[in-house]
Write a structure and sequence with these properties.
By secondary structure, the protein is of the alpha+beta class. Among the domains are: 32-138, no CATH class; 509-556, no CATH class; 560-622, Complement Module, domain 1 (Ribbon), CATH 2.10.70.10; 626-666, Laminin, CATH 2.10.25. Strands 9-10-12-13 form a 4-stranded antiparallel β-sheet, with no helix packed on it. A two-stranded parallel sheet has the order 1-6. A two-stranded antiparallel ribbon has the order 2-5. Strand 19 (722-724) and strand 20 (728-730) form a beta hairpin. Helix 2 packs across helix 4 and helix 7 (205-213) packs antiparallel against helix 18 (442-452). The chain starts with a helix and ends in a 9-residue tail after the last helix. Keywords: Disulfide bond, EGF-like domain, Glycoprotein, Heme, Iron, Membrane, Metal-binding, Oxidoreductase, Peroxidase, Signal, Sushi, Transmembrane, Transmembrane helix. Heme b binds at residue 321. Residues 566-622 form the Sushi domain.
Length: 754
């Protein structure tokens, strides 16, 4: 098996090189008659190299349906939706093309130039356009309606009028420091074993986990102040604002390796609201650091970019993994434990049936409110449920979350720990004494430097995690700086932040400030009592309050009604769409929109005049997505069928639809028609064989009767036996009872008698 894998990878490398060479052969760097044609060929070759492993991945997942490895489960949980998938695929095509340019640069000249430095800006723009990246880089088209001044778009686009893509989904993470890649483009720190940092190679991430981060479940220390809900809320916020899609392929392209079949470092295998800023973040940063890095709200600042940063998404806000308790604690209606209350995390992953069979979500909520979170202690960073038993299903293996976090930071090109300390205005750590003081734990400093050898080499996630807490905080100074800076940017760069004047009325802001996480739990669960502060661990019953006494919002502050004497009123509902009311230059305006898959036919907004609405309401008409040739909804292997409000990709048997919902892949079986034909053929053959034997038996029996004189048969009741081929020897044929004859004659339909 190993030899075949090596041979396969070798052939892939050879074929990829030959493929590029055959398409792009020419005298200059790019090939083709002109640079433009060379770029076109380069991008097309890259597209084929990217698409093939994507389809290979889907075919493999189809063959293994129902037998998932932990890495497959992780990738399924991050499977991008169509828009994100399109952006991700385009990025991989662009990267593959750039890597081929790099390969040619290295082959033809001895230079330190990056691949992008040898291409003109015009050619790079052409590559971006042909790969599909350019539409995701251009400014978003912002709607110019009064509605766009009142409500944010669900994608976050057009929040900033001057920079429509700031803070929007499906845009690149912000870089606060230049990336650190070993090849200057994509190879993460620690990728090349001969690449040295301060004269030393970086340690493997798994060794860092084993020697510094891992701790047994029994050794964890519980937080005496904050509840498990603080951890859960952090995880929810993190996955909301810092979620990034996984690579569209886990298989090999451009000579890369299959991530599930190798441990080598080869492409692509390396291995956020009022409640949040008011109630959650101050507990994480501490009052002093919150005032320093976030501070009071001063209003919307259009010069602030709220885009989530790489270091926040992939390192700093992953601190919460060190606060995850190894047990899921469930409690009964009296907040008491019961048999099965302590459930190891590994028994809860991908087990939604437990909510149905074990009392719903309420027992889990009680445990989150009345049981403490794990305390982040320097020598108890992550428990074994996360480092040794993540995503256990049957015997399919496990993952290590700590190693994933470390490698994620390297994959994103994050500079080392000291670079980020300097970015935040903190002193660089130069010696063991410096690190020991920062962590307040000499043993941890020993283990870290024993692996990294130099403070500059330390991964930022580990360095920030190991720092001792600031007063009243659950993070050290580095992560407090990064998290605070990001939260302030998310607030100050948001035109629709709830405290920004003009977004809500004074009455509405007053109602919003009354809301709390405790009220949310009361309104959305069966719990009748909750703590006043849901993030502080509560002692039952003395620290729990009836839900009736927990204040909440009065939504009447948002009620909109036509003014008295209004000549317009509201029109009839729009099928497959709707409308919202706003004001423009003192006039009432209705702005219409359609559901996904439909397009407005008619005016997008109508205005109320003294004579009524100035135009009839528009209609919502179905979009035929199958007519889109620039970005077809289905892969070329599938048939596109338009449906009301959507599209259906269909496959010809024996192909089946892959996990992306648009590509047909081989199911590894015969077509259904072939199976039916074989089955019908088998039935026909058996039926004909049975019929033939019946005919033979009847014919043989008919030929035997005239040979027996009736008189003799009636005389002594005995007559000679006649052999009947295929039906056995029969005795006393002439005198046999009718029942016996019928039984013998029926034997032909069964094939052979005794």
């Amino acid at each position: 098996m190993g030899a075949r894998a090596v041979l396969g990878v070798t052939l892939a490398v050879a074929c990829a090189g030959a493929f590029f060479a055959s398409i792009l052969r020419r005298k200059d760097l790019l090939g083709g008659d002109t640079e433009a044609s060379g770029v076109a060929g380069l991008v097309e070759a890259s597209r084929l190299l990217v698409d093939e492993p994507i389809h290979t991945t889907m075919r493999r997942n189809l063959r293994k349906r129902g037998i998932f490895s932990p890495s497959q489960l992780l990738s399924f949980s991050k499977l991008p939706e169509p828009t994100s998938r399109t952006a991700s695929r385009a990025a991989e095509i662009m990267e593959t093309a750039v890597q081929e340019v790099k390969r040619r640069v290295c082959r033809r000249r001895d230079t330190d130039e990056l691949p992008t430095d040898v291409l003109s800006e015009e050619l790079l723009s052409t590559m971006a356009n042909l790969s599909g990246c350019l539409p995701h880089m251009l400014p978003a088209s912002s709607p110019h309606t009064c509605l766009a001044n009142k409500y944010r778009l669900i994608t976050g686009a057009c929040n900033n009028r001057d920079h429509p893509r700031w803070g929007a989904s499906n845009t690149a993470l912000a870089r606060w420091l230049p990336p650190a890649y070993e090849d200057g483009v994509t190879e993460p720190r620690g990728w090349n074993p001969h690449f040295l940092y301060n004269g030393l190679p970086l340690p493997p991430v798994r060794e860092v986990t084993r020697q510094v981060i891992h701790v047994s479940n029994e050794a964890v220390t519980e937080d005496g102040q904050y509840s498990d809900l603080l951890m859960a809320w952090g995880e929810y916020i993190d996955h909301d604002i810092a979620f990034t899609p996984q690579s569209t392929s886990k298989a090999a392209f451009a000579g890369g390796a299959d991530c599930q079949l190798t441990c080598e470092n080869r492409s692509p295998c390396f291995p956020i609201q009022i409640v949040t800023l008011r109630d959650y973040v101050p507990k994480i940063l501490g009052a002093e650091a919150f005032g320093q890095h976030v501070g009071p709200y001063q209003g919307y600042d259009p010069a602030v970019d709220p885009t989530v940063s790489n270091v926040f998404s992939t390192a700093a806000f992953r601190f919460g993994h060190a606060t995850i308790h190894p047990l899921v604690r469930t409690l009964d209606a009296r907040f008491q434990e019961h048999p099965g209350s302590h459930l190891p995390l590994r028994a809860a992953f991908f087990q939604p049936w437990r909510l149905l069979r074990e009392g719903g979500v309420d027992p889990v909520l009680r445990g989150l409110l009345a049981r403490p979170a794990k305390l982040q202690v320097q020598d108890q960073l992550m428990n074994e449920e996360l480092t040794e038993r993540l995503f256990v299903l049957s015997n399919s293996g496990t993952l290590d979350l700590a190693s994933i976090n470390l490698q994620r930071g390297r994959d994103h090109g994050l500079p080392g720990y000291n670079e980020w300390r300097e970015f935040c205005g903190l002193s660089r750590l130069e010696t063991w004494a410096d690190l020991s003081a920062a962590t307040a734990n000499g043993r941890v400093a020993d283990r870290i430097l024993g692996l990294y050898q130099h403070p500059d080499n330390i991964d930022v996630w580990l360095g920030g995690l190991a720092e001792s807490f600031l007063p009243g905080a659950r993070t050290g100074p580095l992560f407090a700086c990064i998290i605070g800076k990001q939260m302030r940017a998310l607030r100050d760069g948001d035109r629709f932040w709830w405290e920004n004047p003009g977004v809500f009325t004074e009455a509405q802001r007053r109602e919003l400030s009354r809301h709390s996480m405790s009220r949310v739990i009361c309104d959305n669960s069966g719990l009748s009592h909750v703590p006043l502060d849901a993030f502080r661990v509560g002692q039952w019953p003395q620290e729990f309050e009836p839900c009736a006494s927990i204040q909440g919002m009065d939504l009447g502050a948002w009620r909109e009604a036509p003014p008295s004497g209004d000549a317009c009123g509201f029109p009839d509902p729009v099928e497959d769409g709707g409308f919202l009311l706003c004001e423009e230059r003192g006039q009432r305006v209705l702005v219409f929109s359609c559901r996904h898959g439909f397009r407005l036919r008619g005016p997008a907004q109508i205005t109320c005049t003294p004579r009524g609405w100035d135009s009839p309401p528009p209609l919502c008409k179905d979009i035929n997505e199958c007519e889109d040739e620039t970005d077809p909804p289905c892969h070329a292997s599938a048939r596109c069928k338009n449906t009301k409000g959507g599209v259906l990709c269909e496959c010809s048997d024996p192909l089946v639809l892959g996990e992306d919902g648009r590509t047909c892949v081989d199911a590894g079986r015969l077509p259904r028609a072939s199976v039916v034909s074989i089955a019908l053929g088998a039935v026909l053959v058996c039926g004909l064989a049975g019929l033939a034997w019946t005919v033979v038996c009847r014919w043989t029996h008919a030929d035997a009767r005239p040979l027996l004189p009736v008189g003799e048969g009636e005389g002594d009741g005995k007559s000679p036996s006649l052999p009947l081929p295929g039906c056995g020897n029969r005795r006393d044929v002439g005198a046999a009872p009718a029942l016996e004859v019928e039984q013998d004659l029926s034997c032909g339909s069964r094939g052979l008698c005794e």
